[in-house]
Amino acid sequence: MSEQLTKGQNATLTADDVVVSLVLTAAADLSALLVTEHGKVRSDADFVFFNQPTGPGVRLQPGSAGQAAALAVSLREVPADVDQVRAVITLDDPSSSFGRSAAPTARVADTAGNVLYEYRIDGLDSESIVIALELYRRQGGWKVRAVGQGYAGGFAALVTDHGVSVEDEPAPAPAPAPIPAAPAAPAAPAAPAEISLTKSRPVSLSKGQKVTLKKDGGVALTQIRMGLGWDPVVSRGRFGGRAANIDLDASALLFAGTDLTEIVYFGQLKSRDTSVVHSGDNLTGNGDGDDEVVTVDLTAVPAAVTSIVFVVTSFRGQTFEQVENAFCRLVDATIATELARFTLAGGMPFTAMVMAKVYRDGSTWKLQAIGEGVNAKTPQKAATQLGPFLGR
User: Fold this and answer.
1) Do 351 and 223 fall into the same domain?
2) HEC states along 91-112?
């Protein structure tokens, strides 16, 4: 009979080969991060997911009908400098959350199918990603710990925080690729190191994707416009459709490292040095095109500012479940040409959306599409929750 674990509880593993599996009511993927005692992977090869289904001592294998793939872990084959194997659950639909379905259950079994431990991950709410459990070394043996830690920064933030390089790559596609039977299958080819911005073909960004702010010929952009837009959901009744009266506000938050230096929004339309300028407040979201625009002169941004985060907040407290067609788009302000666009599909149960950021990487600027929700009615309240998005 299996032992039921509670959050934070640990237990000893007596089997050398174990299988970590899930019981889910929502479509999700299982992946693994093999980390050292410092909490980082040694290389990208220590990240096991559907496009790279094998790693040192760990491989993905097909799950039972209707369930995610399982992780087969040969503890004796895990390299000596790997201290923990962390099992991560990621919902297929990043706009959904674990709070919308029954709590997932993580199981640890031996290779004969005998379930050794079960952990029902209760208490999840708005998270779409959770570190379910970890297998870790202790005094020459292995133990399992029930973690159940949600991750607000998004999938790309989670893996980069663990040392995985996802620079300029799309976030993993939601539909898992077929899992090969043999563990020696090679990983999928990496995406190009940089996405090329070109005025003839705007880039369509996916969540977590990064791109260097250079245009045709490798010339760095100097002035950009971040256009943000949305439409209120139209409710259909017996007397026709009516759009909700939703007041969303776009803002640009300037950070020096993790320290907030300034907020540009409807209440302060320019930064002190005028390098960042806001177009003004749109109270409804009705109409075509950008609802609010923030213009940034990248050449004039103070050297201390390392990132500018673009956030949309709901002043009256309605959630983004009442908003559709939310997007942000990058425009070369010198020639008024769109270069990249990031569109959010479906609403989320949050009152604020962290849309994107531009940040310094050495002497260049880069853009990252984020698309993660937080609960805040004003940019000032949102600022306290942006820590997970400030890393690279």
Assistant:
1) yes
2) ECCCCCCHHHCCCCEEEEEECC
Domain identity same for 142 and 244: no
Same-domain check for residues 127 and 54 = yes
Containing domain of residue 155, as a range? Answer: 3-161
Integer Cα distance of 355 and 344 in angstroms: 9
Best CA proximity match to 250, nearest among 280, 225, 273: 280
Establish how many alpha carbons lie within 13 A of residue 191's alpha carbon, considering only the half-sphere containing its beta carbon.
16
Whole-number Å distance between alpha carbons of 111 and 134: 18
Closest CA to 167 of 388, 366, 390, 372: 366
| Euclidean distance between CA atoms 336 and 225, whole angstroms | 9
Three-point CA angle 345, 128, 187, nearest 5°: 90
What is the Cα–Cα distance from 132 to 142, expressed in whole angstroms?
17
Residue 123 belongs to domain with CATH number: 2.60.60.30
Domain end among 103, 128, 161 = 161
Task: Enumerate residue ranges in the chain where pLDDT < 70.
Answer: 1, 64-66, 151-157, 165-196, 198-201, 216-217, 232-246, 281-289, 345-347, 392
Q: What is the pLDDT of residue 382?
A: 93
pTM score, two decimals? Answer: 0.50
* Position 167 in a domain: no
Total tally of structural domains belonging to the chain: 2
Among 15, 91, 18, 153, which residue's Cα sits nearest to residue 346? Answer: 91
Same domain, 155 and 46: yes
CA distance 127 to 154: 9
Contact 148, 124 (CB under 8 A): yes
Domain shared by 152 and 274, yes or no? no
CA dist 273 and 361 (Å) reads 22
Q: What is the pLDDT of residue 315?
A: 82
| Whether residue 242 sits in one domain with residue 361 | yes
Please indicate, yes or no, whether residues 71 and 18 belong to a single structural domain of this protein. yes
CA distance 279 to 290: 10
For the beta sheet containing 307-314, the strands, ordered from the edge strand earlier in sequence to the opposite edge, are: 210-212, 364-374, 352-361, 307-314, 248-256, 259-264
> Same domain, yes or no, for 86 and 210?
no
Residue 153 lies in a domain: yes
Per the CB < 8 A criterion, the answer to whether 255 and 390 are in contact is yes
Block residue for tokens 């320019």: 270
**Burial of 38 per CB tally in 10 Å (0-12, 13-18, 19+):** exposed
